[in-house]
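Q: Could you fold this chain for me?
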Amino acid sequence: MDGFVLSIDQGTTGTTALVFDRAARVRGRGYSEFTQHYTQPGWVEHDALEIWRVSLSAASEALASAGVEARSLRAVGITNQRETVVAWERSTGLPVARAIVWQDRRTAAACDELKARGLEETIREKTGLVLDPYFSGTKMKWLLDNTEHLRARAARGEVVFGTIDSWLVWKLTGGRAHATDPSNASRTLLFNIRKLRWDDELLALFGVPREALPEVRPSSSLFGETEPSVFFGARVPVAGVAGDQQAALFGQACYDGGMVKNTYGTGSFLLMNTGREIVPSRAGLLTTVAWQVGGESAEYALEGSIFITGAAVQWLRDGLQIIERADETERLARALDSNEGVYFVPALAGLGAPHWDAYARGAIVGLTRGTTRAHLARAALESMCYQTRDVVEAMERDSGIRLKEVRVDGGAVGNSFLMQFQADILGVAVVVPEVTETTAAGAAYLAGLAVGFWEDRREIAARWRVARRYEPRMKEDERERLHRRWLRAVERARDWAREEE
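A: Sure. Below is the predicted structure, expressed as structure tokens.
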């Protein structure tokens, strides 16, 4: 079957676009970063119009590098930074304010208020989520409360809300489709994951009018067609949408219950496929919709969301300016025989799973006169692995499944020190696939399945291949000692920013 699928992977710091052929090979790629706006401590914002321009630019670059014209595409898939919220005018398609990013902590007090009212268990039962500023519902409420006339305009249907996938679907289709999928909807605190629809009780609780929200369609289905005037003169089905971490689970071919992947990006996200079973978490994890393919039942996952992993290395580069490039960290880490007692808890945006502390802040402990930038680089890399272990232990408790391996992807998998230390501190194999851009691949697969470009998941799974496998080498007593000290460091970072009574 001729043709190609374009995947737009709209991330936190940039947009990647990849062109896939039917053999699931990457034929072309484009990438462009965009501006991060830190307007107040704990606030993170994006310009949605800049994201749109950057996404189009990345798509154009990917098509050019593949030598492919847009009319040769069979489908477009979208995957996105999930909880980030945009509000825009229905008539003009212009944002009414900057997007509030998933990392933003401005609604921590609003979450505390809802907890104090005893509402967290009701919300968790319906949504599978904890009450944390991470999710979209309190961001929408903040925009409605703090943007002039927005609540009245939203109630009249003049202004609409969406996560970034909805924004891109709207722009790609020339404003004809205002839609999302269950994986993104399930991150809003407004979506009932059992009934697969917006929940009236939750909408009333957060004060979000139903008229402002997108239609929820299956992750692999027709969302609309691209508008030729904005998409390189071509009409192409937009046929796959999924939040970035669910897309990575799909791209890793984790189609059976108990399979786990970890994506290393700005943050890190572990997901375990639980099939069509909704597994409630009592260990600090999230229960989320993984995807819905066509008319099939939705499938679910347990998720551990770690807010800061790769972003810790970016901070060493851009904030402290002690490295020039992220890949320097591997050489620096290998220059030491051990961490020499230095630990970095990168709670730069609070702590996510399984700790869920919006008031935690970053901490570096164990410093001595002998501490160098090599220690900080190694501590940043090790922190990714310790945080991952915290989530894996919670996942095993919730699911009753002892992991045998973790499939990994994302930018950091090229760091062999990090991957080996991850295997060592987990005590299980860490497996790197040949195609590591699994987030974009997952969106492409969902789109391709919807238009018959790929026949079924078995065909996709057959194309998944191992590039490298890391087996644990560390002795168990050393593994446990290092992790115990990490947990002591975490305790020192917790609750740091809470105002004293």
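A (continued): The mean pLDDT is 94.
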